[in-house]
Amino acid sequence: MDKADIGLIGAGVMGQNLALNFESKGFPTILYDSDQEKLNKFINSIDSSKKLKGADTLENLINKLSLPKKIMLMVPAGKIVDDVIDNIIPMLNKGDIVIDGGNSNFHDTIRRTKYLEEKGFLFIGTGVSGGEEGALKGPSIMPGGSPDAWKLVKLILQSIAAKVEDGTPCCDWVGENGAGHFVKMVHNGIEYGDMQLICEVYQIMKNLLGMSAPEMHKVFKEWNEGELESYLIEITRDILAYKDEDGQPLVDKILDTAGQKGTGKWTVFASLDTGTPLTLIGEAVYARTLSAMKDDRVEASKVLNGPKPKFDGDRKQFIDDIRQALHASKIVSYAQGYVLMRYAAKEYGWNLNNGGIALMWRGGCIIRSVFLGKIKEAFDKNSQLTNLLLDTFFKEKIESSQEAWRRVVSTAVLNGIWIPALSTALNYFDGYRNGRLPANLLQAQRDYFGAHTYERVDKPRGQFFHTNWTGRGGTTSSTTYTV
């Protein structure tokens, strides 16, 4: 192999599988890792005829790349990305391309794009979703960064990406600087929400209906053959069927403390920065932090009492109610995620293709599902759609699920079943469809104690008023409020 088309830095499982993917699609590939023992073990384990080789130094990796050089970083997010970039910059030529394929914060990607472009290089920050299997067989890829870089990497990235039914790759240009990593971050946030919703459904079935893991496996198997068909429903089906060495369901033996790597938390931060109500994903993040307080919860369970779950209704009907509640809540999760992307695009100057993003998520990634095809159709019909809930399909679907959704939430609450995501999804729906919220009283309170002013329903928007509520506060007002 004289020259490689692409070089990868980082020979972890994702790096290894992406390297194999690149090579299998006809792109000679070179791989480097600071852990040479791990790298050599991997290289020695593959067929020597493959056009995939290892490099013993960063310099050797870069010297063996064809022009313009394309280097993809598969290293942990954070300072290490900056360190690797600074290490390779002296070895690069003007116009070479650095690709960060890790889960970097989009603010860092904005900064790195500017930093490298000022030095004459091109930078791409791309989300890569699908885990180990996706990296090997075809992930969802969400690139953003230097626009001039896209035409130079389009063929190679789209070749290794997952494909939908008609062969369209789940990879397309997202937008400038941090847009790609932002979209990947929102993807991960929606993933948090989907997983939490499924866990709450599992909790209702287990604690209220007394269902066993094999019984729940059958339900999820059926659901995965209908409108809820998705990767996460599929793996939940499989998890519930998996038995430990003693023949008992393994899921029942797993400690109830959830981990996280930060992308869900970043999504919530972004929603606060842009003033977007991302309530469901927020609850999903907090649900993980509450689960991590295992010792505290065990102690609290000895002191705090609630209702003992008891169900006397039609079990089969209620399971179908749960299905509808899950589907409706899932619609809310995606609706909130897309509103966040719309607000962020306005703030950061990105021109996001919402339908194209749904297409990129249809294959390869963790949240892939048949559901996403309907989202693409919604934005194909109306590219300026402000909220998925206003699309005819989703409006009809969520309204037809309302009664079942409300029965599930109210029944769970009355029986003391913890459902933060299912309930906040319904609350968001009720708040969004309400033409008048009680914020008029809230704004009056703010004006009372802080002279923050208010607008009036009988005056044009943009006119602000202050009332001297006590007769002692004077007429001077504070700053106006920011929505």
Question: Overview of this structure, please?
Answer:
With 483 residues, the protein is of the alpha/beta class. It has 20 helices and eight strands. The chain has helices at residues 13-24, 36-45, 58-63, 79-88, 106-118, 131-137, 147-160, 179-208, 213-223, 231-241, 263-274, 279-292, 294-301, 315-348, 354-360, 371-381, 392-400, 402-414, 420-432, 439-450; strands spanning 6-9, 29-32, 52-55, 70-73, 97-100, 122-129, 140-145, 175-176. An eight-stranded mixed sheet has the order 3-2-1-4-5-6-7-8, with helices on both faces. Helix 1 (13-24) links the parallel strand 1 (6-9) and strand 2 (29-32). Helix 8 packs antiparallel against helix 14 (315-348). The mean pLDDT is 94.
In short:
This protein has 483 residues and is α/β, with parallel strands linked by helices.
Give the count of helical stretches.
20
Low-confidence stretches: none
**What share of the residues does DSSP label as strand, in percent?**
5-15%
Order of helices and strands: EHEHEHEHEHEHEHEHHHHHHHHHHHHH
Largest sheet descriptor: 8 strands, mixed
Radius of gyration: 25 Å
Secondary-structure class? alpha/beta
Tell me the number of strands.
8
Give the fraction of residues assigned to helices: 40-55%
Strand order of the largest sheet: 3-2-1-4-5-6-7-8
Q: What is the overall shape?
A: globular
Q: Averaged pLDDT, please?
A: 94
Task: Kindly report how far apart the N and C termini lie.
Answer: 59 Å
